[in-house]
Amino acid sequence: MAKKALTEKKDVKAKKKVNQKKIVKPKKVTNPKIFVIDTSVILYDSNAIKNFEEHDVAIPIQVLEELDEFKKGNETVNFEARAFIRFVDSISKEKLISNWIPLNGNTTGKFKVVLHSQSTGINSERVFGDSKYDNKILNCAIQLQEDHKDKSVILVSKDICLRLKAKALNILAEDYETGKVKDVQTLHQGQVLMEGVDEKLIDTLYKTGIGDKNLLKLDKVSANQYFILQNKKKSVLARYNKAEDKLERVHDVEAFGIKGLNAEQNFALHALLDPSIKLVTIQGMAGTGKTLLAIAAAIEQRTAYRQIFVSRPVVPLSNKDLGYLPGDVKSKLDPYMQSLWDNLGFIKSQFQVTDKNHKRIETMVENEKIAISPLAYIRGRSLVRIFFIIDEAQNLTPHEVKTIISRAGDDTKIVLTGDIHQIDTPYLDSQSNGLTFVIDRVKDHAIAAHITLEKGERSELANIANEYL
């Protein structure tokens, strides 16, 4: 009997312990904030409201109205709008979203939808007019300031002009920082010029093709880091192979008639032709050969892949913009793809019309072994044994790039090319675009390589334009 009582006592203690473990105390917020989220942030990242930790998040009712206009379509912004609407619906079961509701139990802040402001103070609609939703969104932030004087109210928007108007009305405003690379100036370049290198290392690389990484005397060397090693008149190109923990000589290579015209292009071709490297990012201004090298390398390796996709985002993709162009959808989209066709045409021009390689490219296009189409048309396709080139990747969001790369199947290679300083999308910049994001995040992974092309090879005239104009 005593033994049974002792067992029951132990069970009660065990249950208490389990119950104690289940209790999650809310975080103590030392500097409470309310973040007011603009539509542009949600269209950039539908998971944005989950990224403000213990602070509260509010969205003006006008944001839901704007999202309703974006919910139909097959573009990324449409997917983001639908995802956010579904998320809000899931957390508001049997709850009123006009009241503060927890986002995730007690571990994060609360969420609500703010109705139209009845502010007794500054009214942005009286200042800027009532024709735009932006001004109603500003009024919601002002209302929250009046209702929650114990908290900092901060407007978060990808729209620079809206942030400036907010600051003019004494509202704290900032960009959405998640996924943003803070310092583009120190962004991984992919290659390093080293002078005064041990002469023995250069000689060894020439003789054996392999060298000791420790002779570089560097604190850290990234995976697939490329080097121009010099000692007076001697020089050699090399790459750090992280898997083997050694330096390997990089030889001059050629891809389907296209040769590297400088060290950077040789590095790019080396990475593009290496089957062990599954993700290649190439950044550089116009005329540095990014897309040309990628397409040439893909055709060179045509037997290793089931298909070659060459694509790019079509920035002005609204129905209105395309509607002004004559013809069917293909005719409307062809002008946006023309630069890709131009690069393919240049590769063909390296061979005589009667040459089998010239005919081979034409056959590949006819049989859709090479497919050039907008990125929206690639969505949903199976990416198994595909050499996938995405041009102008700087016009994609980090979330879009992640979605594309996560679709890669077995034996697929993905190449992202672009110029992070030439953004055509309104709410992206050199710090927040998808290309910058990938370069920064995968810089030390063995199956990823990055090259920054700085020397223009298009023409002397193009170089003058890039440098002086």
From TrEMBL:
Keyword Ribonucleoprotein on entry: no
Boundaries of every PIN domain copy: 33-164
Annotated Pfam families: PhoH, PIN_4
Entry GO terms, CC: cytosol
Record-linked Gene3D superfamilies: 5'-nuclease, P-loop containing nucleotide triphosphate hydrolases
UniProt keyword list: ATP-binding, Nucleotide-binding
SUPFAM superfamilies: P-loop containing nucleoside triphosphate hydrolases, PIN domain-like
GO molecular function, one term: ATP binding
Family from the record: Belongs to the PhoH family.
Classification via PANTHER family: PIN DOMAIN-CONTAINING PROTEIN, PROTEIN PHOH
Name listed for the protein in its UniProt record: PhoH family protein
